[in-house]
Write a structure and sequence with these properties.
This protein is about 5% helix and about 60% strand. With about 475 residues, the protein is mostly beta strands. Helix 1 (about 55-60) runs antiparallel to helix 2. It is elongated, with a radius of gyration of 32 Å.
C-alpha cells in the first residue's frame, strides 16, 4: 500500500493519491496453478483553472494590488479584479492569485485493474492450457468553477460563474487463451510444438458533460443549479463508445536435429471498426532456419558457436483507428431555430474501408564466435503495404466534409540492417561491450488509386515525392557498456 501527498509550487495545486496492490499465487495441485493480481488507485488532483496562470503572474504589472484597499488605504480580504485595466481584460490578463485560490479545477480518478491467470497441465509436459483475463475499470470525475471575482467581468458575461461537471467511465476486458502441444517422439531427432492462441478485447466508454454559466452566486458551483444554459460557453452532452476485436492464431514449429527448423502460422483478426463485409482478415506466415554450425563439415571450426541462415514470409494487418467509421453519425448544431436545435452529419459513412495488409519477406544470417564474445547479424527485407490507410485525406468540402479516411493504394519499402556486438574485455567484476548498428531503408510509393479526386487531394501533399519516392535513411551508432 502506498500513500502520497504532494503540494504544487503554484498556488491552488496539489495531489493526493492512495494505491494498493495484492498478488496471490496458489497451486491447487501439481498440474493446476492460479495467479491473481489486483491493483487499486484513488487520486485527487487540484489544478489551476488555467494553465497560463504563471505566465499572467510574470507579466502582471507590479503596482497592481492583489487585494482591494479600503477608504483608509488598508488591505481588505477582497480580491482586486477590475473588469479591465491598461493591460487588457480576461482572458489576456486577470488577478492570478484570485484565479489560483478562488477558481476550482478538481479531478478525482479511481482505477481498478484485476488480472486472473490459470495454468493447467492437461498432460504433464505435453499439453498445457493457459487462460488470462484482465479487467481495467477507470472512472474520472472533473469539476471546475470560474467565479466572477477571478475574472472581474460583468455579471451577465458568459464567462462569469462558469460551472462544469464531467464524468467519464471506461471499462475494458482482455482475454488470452492458449493451448500448447509438445508431443513426444521415439526418435529424439524430431521436435514439434503446436500452438492455438485466441485473444479478445472489448471496451466501453461512457461520458457525461454539463457546462453552464451565470449562477446566482459564486457559492453555487454546480451546473445542476438553475443557471444560464444557452450561453456561448454552455454545453450539455453525453456519449457512448464501444469497441470489440478478436484474433485466433494457429502456429506449428517443427525441427530436425535442432538444425532444420520450419514455422508455419495462420492468424485471423476481426474488428468492429470495419463494416461487416470487411470486418475479418486472414494473415498467413512461414519461416525457416538452418543452423549450419551444427553440420559435420563445420565441426572442426571450434571458434564458431553459432552460424544460422533464416528466411521468412508473412502478412500482418492494421485496422482503422476510428470507431463507427461505417456509420453516418449526426450531431446537434450550436444554433437553434424556433427553440429547436438542428442536426448535421458529423462523419462520412465509409463502408468500403478494408484492412491494411503488410506483406513482408526477410532473409538473414547470424554468426556468433569466440564463446559468444563476437556476434554479427545481418538481414535484408522487402515489405509491401497493400490497401494503405490514409487518415485525413483532404477532399473538396462541397459535400460538407473536408477530409476522409480511405485505402489509397500500395507502398513498397526495402532495406537492410547489420548489427555487430563484441565483448573485448571481461573479468570477474568488469566487462566492456560494444554495439554497432547500420541500417538503410528505401521507400517506394508504387501505386495509387487512379482517381482524379485522389490525385488532386494527395499530390499537393506529396509534391516533393512525385509518383515515386526514394528516401534513404542511414543510421549508425555504437554503445559501450561497463558493468
Amino acid at each position: 500500500m502506498e500513500y502520497l501527498t504532494q503540494k504544487g509550487i503554484t498556488l491552488g495545486t496539489d495531489l493526493t493519491r492512495i494505491s494498493n496492490r495484492v498478488n496471490l499465487d496458489y497451486s491447487i495441485s501439481d498440474r493446476i496453478h492460479i495467479r491473481t493480481d489486483l491493483s487499486f488507485t484513488h487520486s485527487e488532483t487540484n489544478k489551476n483553472y488555467s494553465d497560463g496562470v504563471r505566465n499572467v503572474a510574470y507579466l502582471k504589472m507590479p503596482n497592481m494590488s492583489i487585494y482591494q484597499l479600503d477608504d483608509y488605504g488598508s488591505l481588505t480580504p477582497i480580491y482586486f479584479s477590475p473588469e479591465s485595466n491598461i493591460q487588457g481584460q480576461y482572458s489576456s490578463t486577470y488577478n492570478p492569485v484570485a484565479l489560483a485560490k478562488a477558481a476550482v479545477n478538481k479531478v478525482v480518478a479511481e482505477r481498478i485493474t484485476p488480472k486472473f491467470n490459470i495454468r493447467y497441465q492437461i498432460v504433464p509436459s505435453r499439453l498445457m492450457a493457459t487462460v488470462d483475463v484482465q479487467f481495467d475499470i477507470n472512472s474520472t470525475k472533473n469539476k471546475s468553477f470560474l467565479p466572477q471575482i477571478a475574472t472581474g467581468l460583468g455579471w451577465t458575461n458568459a464567462e462569469v460563474n462558469k460551472a462544469y461537471d464531467g464524468d467519464n467511465d471506461a471499462f475494458s476486458v482482455q482475454t488470452k487463451s492458449s493451448l500448447v502441444w509438445t508431443p513426444a517422439f521415439k526418435n529424439t531427432k524430431h521436435n514439434f510444438m503446436g500452438l492455438i492462441n485466441m485473444m479478445t478485447y472489448q471496451s466501453k466508454n461512457i461520458s457525461y458533460q454539463a457546462r453552464t454559466s451565470n449562477t446566482a452566486s459564486s457559492d453555487l458551483q454546480d451546473p445542476s443549479i438553475p443557471s444560464r444554459v444557452n450561453g456561448a460557453q454552455s454545453a450539455l452532452s453525453s456519449s457512448t463508445k464501444q469497441r470489440t476485436s478478436g484474433s485466433l492464431l494457429l502456429n506449428g514449429q517443427y525441427s530436425y536435429l535442432d538444425r532444420y527448423i520450419i514455422n508455419v502460422g495462420l492468424r485471423g483478426d476481426g474488428t468492429s471498426r470495419l463494416a461487416p463485409d470487411n470486418r475479418y482478415g486472414l494473415f498467413p506466415s512461414v519461416s525457416g532456419r538452418w543452423r549450419a554450425s551444427g553440420e559435420q563439415f563445420l565441426s572442426d571450426l571450434k571458434f564458431i558457436d553459432d552460424l544460422s541462415f533464416r528466411a521468412s514470409y508473412g502478412q500482418s494487418g492494421n485496422a482503422p483507428t476510428s470507431d463507427y467509421s461505417y456509420y453516418s453519425i449526426y450531431d446537434n448544431m450550436d444554433w437553434s431555430f424556433m427553440g429547436e436545435s438542428g442536426i448535421v452529419p458529423s462523419s462520412m459513412q465509409l463502408n468500403n474501408l478494408r484492412w491494411e495488409t503488410v506483406v513482408g519477406t526477410n532473409f538473414g544470417v547470424s554468426l556468433a564466435m569466440f564463446r559468444n564474445r563476437f556476434f554479427i547479424d545481418a538481414e535484408i527485407y522487402r515489405n509491401r503495404t497493400k490497401d494503405l490507410l490514409f487518415n485525413g485525406l483532404e477532399i473538396p468540402s462541397i459535400n460538407g466534409f473536408n477530409s476522409v479516411n480511405m485505402n489509397v493504394g500500395t507502398m513498397d519499402n526495402q532495406g537492410f540492417e547489420i548489427t555487430l556486438q563484441t565483448q573485448p574485455y571481461k573479468s570477474g567484476k568488469w566487462k566492456v561491450d560494444f554495439t554497432f548498428n547500420v541500417a538503410k531503408n528505401q521507400i517506394l510509393y508504387a501505386k495509387f488509386l487512379s482517381s482524379t479526386l485522389l490525385k488532386r487531394a494527395m499530390l499537393p501533399q506529396m509534391a516533393p515525392l512525385k509518383l515515386t519516392c526514394r528516401l534513404i535513411t542511414p543510421l549508425a551508432h555504437s554503445t559501450v557498456t561497463i558493468s
